[in-house]
Amino acid sequence: MKDSDIRHRFKPDNGFLKIAAIMTMGWTFPGTSAAADAHTIAATVCIACHGDDGNSVIPTFPKIAGLQEGYIVKQLRDFRSGARTSEVMSPVAAALKPEDIAPLAAYYSSRKMKPGEAVDREAAGFGKMVYLDGNEESGVPACIGCHQAQGVGYLIYPRIGGQHAPYVAHQMKDFASGDRSNDFGRFMRAIARRMTEEEIQSVAEYLVGLDER
Ligand code: HEC
Ligand code: HEC
User: Using CA atoms, how far apart are residues 78 and 194, in angstroms rounded to an integer?
Assistant: First the structure.
């Protein structure tokens, strides 16, 4: 990680300014206060686990800031339908009103995922190789092929650059075991099953510090 990336993490939060900007940009959800409602839900419900702007400070809970809008909608629907299950998140998603999903997804996707800093640099170095090249021998494709340069993601492929390592490693294991069994997860199930424990931990460690620039 570059020094500038590290400094970036300590920039003061301008969350309220951004929300104000979004609200004055003429976002038109049905009903005039939908954007404000999403902000209220974010600031009263989601904040407890995902942090005040979607940058969770609990490493086993995902950062949701900067995830693709469509991906957030999809995951919330999957939690509600039971296609994706989590003891912690499923009941929260079930309690949402269906009409709150789109505004919440728009809100969180407009935030910036703030990267962390890899603790184990050696592991992160190996993880970088996995990310960029995969493992030809065992048939693990390069993550970059779908999750893009710097892990920024694209459409159904979520942003993973900057995500917490324990969350990533846990999801990889859930994909491998089939516990995360939602439809688009089939790509990941085939991949995670071929990965060694070391590859999973290392790529997770690499992703922590991956920033957009
Ligand atoms: C009590 C804690 C808790 C609360 C409150 C909570 N979440 Fe979550 N959320 C989680 C956990 C834990 C996961 C990861 C579940 C898993 O392991 O699959 C998660 C996962 C997610 C995901 C999927 C992230 C990904 O990278 O795939 C989204 C989107 C999400 N939450 C949105 C929300 C929104 C929006 C709210 C507010 C309405 C909210 N959450 C409130 C704990 C919480
Ligand atoms: C063929 C395309 C493809 C490749 C290659 C790929 N992924 Fe994925 N990945 C996906 C898709 C699609 C999803 C979203 C699944 C869903 O909708 O639940 C995903 C989801 C994930 C998630 C869950 C993110 C979250 O926020 O919960 C992680 C972590 C992940 N991938 C890591 C990796 C790693 C590490 C590699 C390389 C070893 C990799 N992926 C390679 C398609 C891919």
Answer: 25
